[in-house]
Amino acid sequence: MLLYTVFVIALAAESMTAALAAGRRNMDWFGVCVLGSVTALGGGTTRDVLLGHYPLVWVEQPALLLVTTAAALFTIAVARVMEKLRMIFLLLDAVGLVVFTIVGCNVAMEMGQPVLIVIVAGMITGCVGGVLRDILCNDVPLLFSGELYATVSAITACIYFFGQQWGLPAELVMIVAMVIGFTLRTLAIVFKIEMPRFVYVPVRGDQSSKR
């Protein structure tokens, strides 16, 4: 029950952050709602399609579409004060990352998938929604721009999976995984910790640059 409650809150938060991105690109209200819903539900949808897990979560629970749409429309109404709450939304986004990761792991574990697929399913659920948002906004996804995001998701998934494999209480493992994942993501935001970047500048006369 706790996980589901936090999951719904995280869906709303993800939809609101996506709505702000839509507003910065002058999208109409329909575009705002679509971008909000795709961002919030896209990771879980991609996971379910890849794993053959049906019905999709928002098909089974249509109320989730109402949550994401309502959150996006609410953002239009209060957009003027949203920038003042930027840090709060970054923290809510961190909560969403770890919660979505755990939900994705649960789905894969219930299907009896091996450890690697469980971890990947968690990462897809946690990260792909943001990638879809950036692609629809014609941006390079933040996930590929140095953000310490997928790594946090992978660590969260590993803690959650192996904690359960070791026979620890499920709720305790969930809370520990959420706390550690949230803490890591928050530290990355506050101290601007990023993944190493690969910067390649072709030298003059490099044949590969002429292709």
Structure description:
The protein is mainly alpha-helical. It has one domain. 73% of the residues lie in helices and 0% in strands. The protein has 8 helices and no strands. Helix 6 packs antiparallel against helix 7 and helix 7 packs antiparallel against helix 8. It is globular and about 50 Å long. The protein starts with a helix and ends in a 21-residue tail after the last helix. The relative contact order is 0.13. The mean pLDDT is 92. Belongs to the UPF0126 family. It is found in: Cell membrane.
How would you summarize this macromolecular structure in one to three sentences?
With 211 residues, the chain is mainly alpha-helical.
Helical segment count: 8
Count of structural domains: 1
One letter per element, helices H and strands E, the order comes to HHHHHHHH
Q: What coarse outline follows from CA principal-axis ratios?
A: globular
C-alpha Rg, in Å? Answer: 18 Å
Task: Profile the largest sheet.
Answer: none
Percentage of residues in strands:
under 5%
Low-pLDDT runs: none
Subcellular location: Cell membrane
Organism: Pelagibacterium lentulum
Keywords: Cell membrane, Membrane, Signal, Transmembrane, Transmembrane helix
Transmembrane segments: 63-81, 88-109, 115-136, 148-166, 172-191
